[in-house]
Specification:
457 residues, mainly alpha, Na+/H+ antiporter like fold, two-stranded antiparallel ribbon, 17 helices, 2 strands, 3% strand, globular
């Protein structure tokens, strides 16, 4: 075993050691840059898993794929048991983590982000509202009655990972403020989707379970008010809230958003207090340091380092720490698994023309592509003309129009709402998912091409 200071992995900087396969990340990135990077990577992974699901569903392995997603999975504790198919566990359970992250992002944006300053928030809010209302109206105009009308909420949603991924590919050609505008717009869009799910895609209510959920939510709010900052109590009560909503008729994934809204956004220490704390600890660290000895044999050093770690935890807001910690599992596990389970659509290529001409498919496609474009661009133009908002720095309205096209990528949330609206109508569900896939492809390619062309000019 190598002695300290003699290891082959020692850095040129004195006192820094690296394991043989360890990478050093010296570049400091902002939380927003980290968010963009992970959303971009998530979009690429999402695309790969969606393509894999489509290939499996339209190959000789289609029987295996269908058997897999409909495999029953149950939990049993004593006399209590809960059994659902794998697809239901993903859509009702795993996606609660996605909605938890959405709730954290919403709360941060409202408190300190792009939605915190009314003048800056006005344009993306107005644009998002226009991009939700017009697609729903277009769909409803094509499917005004019957079971098909339940799909009006499908084209309202924008997939933030896909849309940002497409825009970041043009990062050298578009201003950073345009990416910020799309993020704010997509987050407001997510909030609209959450409200639509809660109000319009709810089954018959079970009031006893709903009252239990309200009681649990009240306890979570009390946790926030009394200053509990550890995530475990919120997680445990969040699971109970999910279980109560599952029985209440309200979609259980909304437990993620409600729990996220109760996470504290205020740290224990302010920056000045933390600075004094660190200086005092570093003085003790230097006094306890013995050259040539390892920290593993120095109890005083270990105590200082542990205290310093606790202080670092207290200077960061629990909301931001959880958002940072949740991005990785949601981006690289939850969303790809959801795509794999739900994107496997049997494509009858012989009858593809009839499928695309179906009112449900047509309503979803026109809503996402045409409705999103006209709704966002039109609402933005009107807001600017009336003085409600201002263009992001160094952007042109033609770039806002390109973002309006990209917002027609509605993959994750649109498919999720389709599963809710057409749970008992498999034919309509197939048509809706086909419409989402086709519209997302058209909107993504069209928005990318438009922004590339105007930036070249």
């Amino acid at each position: 075993m190598s002695k300290p200071g003699k290891a082959s992995g020692q850095s040129p900087d004195k006192g820094v050691f690296h394991a043989p396969w360890e990478k050093s990340f010296d570049k400091i990135v902002t939380p927003f840059e980290e968010f963009i990077h992970r959303q971009t990577t998530s979009g690429l992974l999402l695309m790969a898993t969606a393509i894999l699901a489509l290939v499996l569903a339209n190959s000789t392995l289609s029987g295996f794929y269908q058997h897999l997603i409909h495999t029953p999975v149950g939990i049993s504790v004593g006399g209590w048991s809960l059994e659902k198919t794998l697809q239901h566990w993903v859509n009702d359970g795993l996606m609660a983590l996605f909605f938890f992250l959405v709730g954290l992002e919403l709360k941060r944006e409202i408190l300190v982000g792009e939605l915190a300053v009314p003048r800056q928030a006005a344009l993306p809010i107005v644009a998002a509202v226009g991009g939700m209302v017009l697609p729903a109206l277009i769909y409803f105009a094509i499917n005004p009655d019957g079971e098909a009308a339940r799909g009006w909420g499908i084209p309202m949603a924008t997939d933030i990972a896909f849309a940002i991924g497409a825009l970041v590919l043009l990062a050298g050609r578009v201003p950073k403020a345009l990416i910020t505008f799309l993020v704010a717009l997509a987050i407001v869009d997510d909030l609209g989707a959450v409200v639509v799910i809660a109000l319009f895609y709810t089954d018959q209510l079970v009031w006893e379970a709903l009252l239990s959920a309200a009681a649990i939510l009240s306890v979570l709010i009390v946790f926030n008010r009394v200053g509990i900052r550890q995530p475990l109590p919120y997680f445990l009560l969040g699971v109970l809230l999910w279980s109560a909503l599952l029985k209440s008729g309200v979609h259980a994934t909304l437990a993620g958003v409600l729990t996220a809204f109760t996470i504290p956004a205020r740290p224990k220490y302010d920056p000045a207090r933390f600075s004094r704390h660190v200086k005092d600890l570093m003085a003790r660290f230097d006094a306890s340091h013995q050259p040539g000895t390892s920290i593993m044999t120095n109890d005083a050093l270990r105590a200082v380092v542990q205290t310093l770690e606790n202080g670092v935890q207290k200077v960061g807001a629990p909301l931001q720490r959880l958002e940072h910690g949740m991005h990785l599992p949601v981006a690289f596990l939850v969303i790809p698994v959801f795509a794999f389970i739900n994107a496997g659509i049997p494509m009858g290529f012989a009858g593809l023309g009839d499928t695309l001409a179906h009112p449900v498919t047509l309503g979803v496609m026109l809503g996402l592509v045409l409705g999103k474009f006209l709704g966002i661009a039109g609402a933005s133009w009107l807001a600017l003309r009336l003085g409600f908002g201002q263009l992001p720095a160094q952007t042109r309205f033609s770039q806002i129009a390109g973002v309006a096209l990209l917002a027609g990528i509605g993959f994750t949330m649109a498919i999720f709402i389709a599963e809710l609206g057409f749970a008992s109508q498999p034919e309509y569900l197939l048509m809706a998912k086909t419409g989402v896939l086709v519209a997302s492809l058209v909107a993504g390619a069209g928005g990318f091409a438009w922004l590339w062309w105007i930036s070249k000019r």
